[in-house]
Design goal:
By secondary structure, the protein is α+β, with helices and mostly antiparallel strands. It has one domain. Helices cover about 15% and strands about 30% of the residues. The chain contains 5 helices and 8 strands. The protein has helices at about 5-10, 25-35, 155-165, 185-190, 220-225; strands at about 70-80, 80-90, 95-105, 110-115, 125-135, 140-150, 165-175, 195. Strands 1-2-3-6 form a 4-stranded antiparallel sheet, with helices on one face. A 4-stranded mixed sheet has the order 7-4-5-8. It is globular and about 60 Å long.
Amino acid sequence: MWSLRQALTDLAQLPVTYPDGTPVSVDEQEAGRSVYPNGHLPEAFDPAQGIRSLFPGGKAARVSQLMDYLNSWDSAFQVGSLSASANISADGTGNWCLRATVECEGHGKFGLGFVFGFSTDAAGHGFVATGDYGLELDDNTLTFGVFANGSDPWIRANWPSIFAGRTFFYISEATGYRKLPPIANAALDHGFNGLASLQGPKPGDTFASVVIDAQEPGFEYLWGPEMIEV
């Protein structure tokens, strides 16, 4: 049976194991707690003052919606020689995180990201990372990771509606030395009038063929360390 007390306890927790089940060290746990003392809940949140502050102001709120305060979407997709497995995570505080593993052949440029299906202003709110990829002469395939994150007040102001809707993943490719398609296509392809990039990395930031933590300090403490293996 769902319990509000247990739900708040779970949201305040930080990951204590690696993806393979190995325990996170006590030092790492303490470091994470110093950065995010309330886990996925707002830093100043006090349950003794009630939970209304967790919901957008002026909008109806149901206690059961807290079951979706932390949400996640997964997808596998491909274009040309690129194939990706990606995850989007976001919470009601406004934190968001894009993680993906990409396999490719040859060399060129890539765009990878997402757009929330919900909008308040006809724009598609999301993020698209871009970068170059290339193989060594004696390699047939390359696997690399993409990691981008941030915190955006628009998510906090609309999280129940955002999390109840769809999320569209996006990938694009330009082989050789061709120009990459506009990252705005991530939104335009789904009927939005433009791309409103979430706060965190700058729109169209370039990502190398390694896992990149785009926001400091220690955003991995929220979502779990070493979430992408390359």
